[in-house]
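Researcher: Checking consistency across runs. Here is Glutathione peroxidase again:
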Amino acid sequence: MTTLGDFSATTLDGSPTDLSAHLGKVVLVVNTASQCGLTPQYEGLQALHEAYAEQGLAVLGFPCDQFGHQEPGTESEIATFCSTGYGVTFPMHAKIEVNGEGADPLYQWLTGAHETPAGEHIEAADIPWNFTKFLLDREGRVIARFEPTVTPEELAEPIREALAAQA
């Protein structure tokens, strides 16, 4: 069975990272953009990171420029924007594509169909816009998908449940 641990990514500073380093944590994966109406969600994502990191939450940001050219900057510009504009300290990765033939392998997997450990079915679907969110359990399996308009604040309860389920 494929899990988060089967993938790697590159951080904004160009460092390769093995996503298996996050196994054992509940993970929230988000495709982000700096010039989107939903960009203020960075604030809520950072708040989730601060509130739950010590309990085992990892928030992972993946900038994407596929929606309305709303992430035009370089990795360095994205890093500066995130840190100075929103105080982001959770891991941010190099810009990727999340849909289509050029989609990053992580997102090819995330957007596929999933059977959750609870037996629920998540349909395969492309990413509709920036700030689509995926919640993964400590074993790196997708347990929920949230559309862009679901705010980080609305994710606090599902995150607490995921953290408690596998504490």
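Researcher: Does this match what you'd expect to see?
Model: One thing to look at in this run: The chain is about 25% helix and 20% strand.
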